[in-house]
């Protein structure tokens, strides 16, 4: 029997929902990363959870796992062509999150980690209203 959804957003959340998947996808939007790179960018995720989330995203066709035949073994992850279609959604989530942080805390830099995903020039992200 085919799965039934109440509304289509349920299908989206089934694939990218949860605490970590969107964060992983945002990092992968900047290019291929090894598991260790993702772990370094996301220090609060456990190795087990990172591995599980990557496997689920791979099963759903959102990320590609690239294994290199070398010693020591090397594995990288990248957004698949299908995963790249989530770009607009991820941009919107980031923009809304930034507006929410500013509303709640006033200064986004007081609560945002200093990393490659956070805009350091003090400008709003694309799609964010002032």
From TrEMBL:
InterPro entries, sorted: HTH_HxlR, WH-like_DNA-bd_sf, WH_DNA-bd_sf
Domain HTH hxlR-type: 7-105
Residue ranges that the Swiss-Prot or TrEMBL entry lists as coiled coil: none
UniProt cross-references to PROSITE patterns, sorted A to Z: HTH_HXLR
Keywords assigned by UniProt, alphabetized: DNA-binding, Transcription, Transcription regulation
Protein name: Winged helix-turn-helix transcriptional regulator
Species for this entry: Paenibacillus tritici
Organism ancestry: Bacteria, Bacillati, Bacillota, Bacilli, Bacillales
